[in-house]
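ugh ok so i messed up the first submission bc i forgot one of the chains. this is the corrected input, ALL of the components this time, i swear. 636 residues overall. if the numbers dont match what u have on ur side tell me asap before i send this to the collaborators (the ones from the other lab, u know who)
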Amino acid sequence: MTQITDRSMRTAAFKPEADDDMLICRCEEITKGEIRRAVYEGMYEITEIRRWLRVGMGLCQGQTCTKLVQRIVAKELGVSPAQLESAAARGPVRPIEMACMGNEKGGVC
Amino acid sequence: MERYDLVIIGAGPAGLSAAIEAARCGMNIAVYDENKRPGGQLFKQIHKFFGSKEHHAKERGFHIGEELLAEADRLGVDVSLDTVVTGLYPGNEVMIKKGGQVSHVRGDTVLLAAGASENMAPFDGWTLPGVIGAGAAQTMMNLHGIRPGSRVLMLGSGNVGLVVSYQLLQAGCEVAAVVDAAPKIGGYGVHAAKLARCGVPFQLSSTIVRAKGGDHVEGAVIGRMDEHGKIIPGSETEIDCDTICIAVGLSPMNQLARMSGCRMEQNPKKGGCVPVCNEYGETSVRGLFAAGDAEGIEEASSAMIEGRIAGIACANRLGFLEDGKAKEAVESNEQALDTLRQGMFAPKNRGKQIEKTDEGFPVSQHLLVTGFLGDDEVEVYPGVTHPKGLHPVIECTQNIPCNPCQDACPHGCIHIGSFITALPAVEASAECIGCGRCVASCSGQAIFLVNEDIGGGYASVTMPYEFMPLPEKGDIGLACSRDGQAIGEAEVLDVKSVKAFDHTNLLTIRVPAELSGKARFYKAAQQ
Ligand SMILES: Cc1cc2nc3c(=O)[nH]c(=O)nc-3n(C[C@H](O)[C@H](O)[C@H](O)COP(=O)(O)OP(=O)(O)OC[C@H]3O[C@@H](n4cnc5c(N)ncnc54)[C@H](O)[C@@H]3O)c2cc1C
Ligand code: SF4
Ligand code: SF4
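and heres the new structure output, hopefully the right one now
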């Protein structure tokens, strides 16, 4: 997998597009414009964009928007979506209440 | 921490099949599924499956699910339902949540069989209530008995889009159109033909520009796309609908795999980011296996075989099954898998332009674009002949892995041969007794019984019919052509509903003799 490491690759200015206010991550209500803008602000990795905007960190844990975000970022960077590393996956992969996390069978080992 | 020989994540066809194999070898297994019911996607599939006998062809998906469950039960496999697997850690440690509690278990082997999730297609208004995934529509209709809307626009013409569109019609919805960005219908021609003869139009090289409506879908604007995927200005048209169904592909569930640290790859032929597996389904993490849609998007039939292979491999790994026996069992399953992965729609042929069938017949381009075969085109295929008297007419014209029609005929009228993707041919020397088994067994509803001359200038056409209410003998209605247009008057001569036909009714109509090669559907007169 070719990784995007060159941080100086983009020099052009952000150009608004007609559908920038379309929601992409519905759980966290993040629009296409916000994601595109993040790329112009220097975030080229899905993990960075995720931390910055919280895309894919809501109720569905990115099940719906991951591919869409990847496609948008790849298009802005002029690379294929397959070249982007997926965001790190961490447990819990489904949202759980804190009370439940605290209620571990057999205690925390 | 509890410890099992095998922990299975997901009780769909892949997970259950693995559990069955492993239980047969005496392994101590835990199966977790977050649903309230085991069976995964299978319980939504009310249509008859393709394949051959060994793949449960011509059985409806949910029946296959029931058989799997019964077998798992018989072997004492315990499926823990309402149980979410929330993490997969080094050492094959699995974190589960059940009720208000989390706990950890360890598997000496672990199988990822978590299936897939639906892709979404963003367009202006895609978050409006009324825009739903095709899988969600299927869940509403087939599990909960709820009609998702009254007039539905389907985006996506792959098998999922085609099958769900047909089920929407069966549930009493109208399907306004099937729209696809590709210039050709993606799914099986026989599935498309079922829709076309009900009058559903296909709009290809097109996509949804906008969903209309204030607080729910009240219509859609679709537009034609140029070769760069841009909407051609002025090509937009409005479609009246209250529901938009999205069937633009599935993505393997991969969070748990990614968490485990196993090697992953982006593989478009497998539908996205999947673990890299060897021929037994084992990932780069020792003892961690993957099968079914989680290992690569395919079908329930292949998911079951992959599950079996993984189950056998796990048993072998832990010494529950000796090498020789394991090898033999894996090999026979691999053969079964290989026969499924043949034909025009095989994973290896995805994206290829195929102009001729294996036998050298031209592939109908008309079918790929409109969803139905042209009246003349159909004549070239080996399933279409015109002997005197009653005979089958088989409008199955693409190389797909399917052969129940051959097995169904007690008189050897239908020949496919040993290569299951071959086109079915009508044997000139065999005599058809009109039993109708072939018609009912055909998963693609592509077989008709025709008698071109029943006297008085009339012909009879028998067709598979899976709609309610059933027409009655003596009803006068309309004969429809392959594109769903009314072409003449039809009188219902017979309606046959036999238990062995498993809810495929055989409807025989009388039509003017000149329509014998055209009449392929029946509508009640008032519609
Ligand atoms: C509309 C439609 C029509 C289809 N028609 C056909 C057909 O005609 N023939 C055919 O062969 N195939 C067909 N398929 C495909 C088939 O249904 C799937 O390929 C098959 O179900 C995949 O099996 P699986 O076991 O891998 O996954 P699934 O059946 O998806 O099962 C996965 C299970 O894992 C559970 N799970 C997931 N994540 C977790 C977690 N973290 N914790 C606990 N449990 C979890 C899920 O609840 C689910 O029960 C169709 C699919 C669709 C959508
Ligand atoms: S109707 Fe019966 S005898 Fe005739 S082709 Fe079909 S299965 Fe064979
Ligand atoms: S005609 Fe035979 S091969 Fe074709 S879909 Fe029907 S059962 Fe399958």
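quick check: The pocket of iron/sulfur cluster (ligand 3) is lined by residues B 190, 394, 396, 402-405, 424, 442-444, 446-447 (CB under 6 Å). that seems consistent at least. The longest strand of chain B covers residues 101-112.
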